[in-house]
Amino acid sequence: KSVKSPLLLLDIKLRLVMESALTARDRVGVQDFVLLENYNSEAAFIENLRRRFRENLIYTYIGSVLVSVNPYKELEIYSKQQMERYRGVSFYEISPHIYALSDNTYRAMRTERKDQCILISGESGAGKTEASKKILLYYAVTCPTNDHMAILGDRLLQSNPVLEAFGNAKTLRNDNSSRFGKYMDVQFDFRGTPVGGHILNYLLEKSRVVHQNHGERNFHIFYQLLDGGDDDLLITLDLERNPQNYRYLVKGNCPRVSSISDKNNWKVVMKALPVIGFTEEEVQKLLNIIASVLHLGNTQFGEGEEGDTYITTETQTSNLAKLLGVDGSALREALTHKKLTAKGEEMISPLNYEQAVSARDALAKAVYGRTFTWLVEKINQSLALKVHSKDSSVIGLLDIYGFEVLQQNSFEQFCINYCNEKLQQLFIELTLRSEQEEYETEGIAWETVQYFDNKIICDLIEEKHKGIISILDEECLRPGETCDVSFLEKLEDTVGSHPHFITHKLANGKTRRVVSREEFRLLHYAGEVNYNVNGFLDKNNDLLNRNLKEVMCQSDNQILSHCFRREEVIDQKRPEMAATQFKNSLMKLMEILMSKEPSYVRCIKPNDAKQPGRFDEVLVRHQVKYLGLMENLRVRRAGFAYRRRFEAFLQRYKPLCPETWPNWHGRLVDGVSTLVNHLGYKAEEYKLGRSKIFIRFPKTLFTTEDALELISCFSELCYTNFGMFSLAEYKIFLGVNVCTCVFRCVVIVIQSGWRGMKARRRAKRRRQAAELIRRFIKGFIYRHEEYCPENEYFLDHVRYSFLKNLRQNLPKSVLDKSWPTPPPSLVEASEHLRRLHMRNMVIKYCRRVQPEWKKQMMQKVVASEIFKDQKDSYPLSVGRLFLDSRLEREQINLKVIQTLGSDKVQYGVSVIKYDRRGFKPRPRQLLLTNTFAVLVDRTKIKQRIDYAALRGISVGSLSDGMFVLHMPTEDNKQKGDAVLHCSHVIEVVTKLAMMANKTSYVNINPGSIRFTVARGKEGIIDFIRGSELKVAKGKRGHLLVVSQRLF
């Protein structure tokens, strides 16, 4: 009885622990779908997804493929600690995660020196963009880095909000839906440090600029500008805050979204643009273009009696021309007329109302689409690899739209689903190839896998001369009357017999009810989709009238002049159609992906309401189908469900066999063979390769895991209850297997040894601590003596503490003069370090200074040398930027510019010139060129002042704007010195002195200035202080200048 009762208690505890482990597996499901027993059952697949989703386990594997379910809430699984947990860990050692896939891809790139790519797919709202952000963040945090690489990582991360603002929009399915495909290459050097990046964009949904479905919005940037832009900016762009005032923003009837803060997102975008490398001027030009699109949408037309069209919103058109930087009359002409070329002759033909509206919308789409392409190019410039290396490797990230099935599917959905067909074809091909290569490497016979090959659908779409895209191009180019219906008829004649193509005309009675006369149906690998042909030809043509291109080519906006090249107008060759362009870019993308080792992330949205915790089985089943997950699982399970390297398998399961525990000293393959024979594996359940064991059935693996769990539980319980048992009692419980009893004894020996070692370590640490305290106190007593054994530890500690404190408190700016106080022994070294650090900060600061800002600073330095502590108004000018010119180009008379000829005006400003007799004020323009200055009265040059002849510049010391340009008295052409007044006297005199190279010729006169009148006579300007500025003739015939008191 004394033996049986404790054994019975131990048996009950073991059963409880084992049942708990099995219940946990049933509750959370398997973390790899390959281990599903019924892997052909879609219901079992979805039930496993549901179980894991319910437990907030949003990641699951299918072999090396990661399936991610959007939780629609923040989970505490993305911290830096989590990144470190997955860093350098084998792919299957811990639970599935996006970080595990990221790290596995990174390590494969480093060890195999082969380019990698991660393909992220899923429908809108499934979390593709968030997945790509998490991957980029993982690399930014965990990869080795330096200052330059930190800047690059920051640029990579900051490019996301910018691209989202210009390329994402609110749709019915997703509040932040990417309306373009994105492929990003991240380049790494031989050390594994990110050194560059490059982005390719695909098929921006330009039609969204001019039309949105009900409940959807235009691109985010329009709403961000209106909600977040300050009042001065909106006044400059002639915009109002209410988005309802703009026709391009009201069609979806959804100006506000509760989950989106346009104002906060605007701040994020404006903060990100300078980080990526945008100058203030480029940002302003970019915003001008965004505003011009809104004004373009508000441009309205009227129709005359003869059918000709005219613009009814003249003010709107003037603002539009100013923002686009084009001639207003030319723009009006181009919006209401088109230019035709026939037999070498050009003809201008008026547009009717519908054509004018279409031309306006085409211009809006072209301007926005090409600007987006320029934006991507600009980001690429900031991410570009500065120094090319042969040893660099690449990880590519493909974040592209998933399969789309809407109520109304058009040209965009056709292109998107064609892209997904190609990606599915690539996915299956690469997965099969990877499986076959692994089997061949391990010397295991490859079993043929039956799967659906979607090449037949890809050929239907892309085949030359016979595919849908070729037929669409042919119909667009065919002379005569063409329309969308004629395109549908051509499809019926050409591909009508194809088993994956159906129209209303070709369908049977049951199918005709769901396919209208304007639709054709394609049987995709993911299911059936009806496409409405209305708009197919127009969207494929994607043409802009030639005269509109000519107008845009002449834009003063550098972004638009880059987007609309003059060669495009000169070249008579017709550009490729939109579908063909997309097909060609897709082919190049396939080549890029085929050249890399792929990893996959399949994203799933659990419900359409974006609610956390809700799992819509019908919606999930639909996505599982069109993502091809069951097909992938069947390919992965066609042979063996589980495979592991010999060393990993033996290390994990060696406690299950007395011959392999605690260590196996022979060949690994012999150890694995011994272990599986002991466990009773049958021949059909496993195969041994050259370096891996392949297990066919998940049940075999689960049985092995349960046995390991039993051993672990038994050991723990034996340790807890060891005092109650004798060796005989263990034998009764275990039968003839004494191995576990021996194992228990070994465990006790190890535990006692470990406890003793820990106690000795604690005692040693106490002795070391006491010795350290003694040395520290002794060093403090001898701290003022020369360096000696008694104080060496204390002085070393003081130096170390100072340097450590210095490292954490180094000045961050050249203006920060603070510096920690050093100990007496480090005064000289501290001063040397301070100078080195200041020099380093100055060098870094100078390298970051832009050319425009450098020019501004040089002018400010010269102004300081001339006016500091000399003129009362100088302190007020320090914070004000010097402008390139105070006169707009149109303010300078064209006749004056022609008179100047090749001498271009470098600076212009309005001044008041005072006559030498009577001091009558006359308004003038002072224009500075590289070699001389001129005073202009409207259309006439009144006086020319050569810099070489300039004798000096005199300025008063008070706050007035008077200055005198002294001319040589012997020059008969000159009428005497020029007496001028300007509100920007500091700026004018500085620029004039720098251009004339006569900064030392500027004189600051505190009381009065003498100047020369004609025939050698002198005049005098007297300066006094007063309550307000006043310039008048004084009592003695002097010019009296009363300067306002500033303080």
What's the helix and strand layout?
Blueprint: H1 4-28, H2 42-54, E1 59-62, E2 65-69, H3 80-86, H4 98-112, E3 116-121, H5 128-142, H6 147-167, E4 168-169, E5 177-178, E6 181-188, E7 194-202, H7 220-228, H8 231-237, H9 247-250, H10 262-276, H11 280-297, E8 301-303, E9 309-311, H12 314-324, H13 328-336, E10 337-342, E11 345-350, H14 353-383, E12 393-399, H15 411-442, H16 455-462, H17 468-477, H18 484-495, E13 501-503, H19 509-512, E14 519-524, E15 527-532, H20 536-541, H21 546-553, H22 558-563, H23 566-570, H24 578-594, E16 597-604, H25 617-626, H26 629-637, E17 642-645, H27 646-653, H28 668-679, E18 686-688, E19 692-695, H29 698-721, H30 727-734, H31 739-781, H32 792-808, H33 827-848, H34 851-867, H35 874-878, H36 894-900, E20 907-914, E21 921-928, E22 932-937, E23 940-946, E24 952-956, E25 962-966, E26 978-981, H37 985-996, E27 1002-1005, E28 1008-1012, E29 1018-1026, E30 1030-1033, E31 1039-1044
Parallel strand pairs: 2-16, 3-12, 3-16, 24-27, 29-31
Antiparallel strand pairs: 1-2, 4-5, 6-7, 6-12, 8-9, 10-11, 13-14, 14-15, 17-19, 18-19, 20-21, 20-26, 21-22, 22-23, 24-25, 25-26, 28-29, 30-31
Helix pairs in contact: 1-29, 4-5, 5-6, 6-10, 6-14, 7-10, 11-12, 11-14, 15-16, 15-24, 15-26, 17-18, 27-28, 29-31, 31-32, 34-37
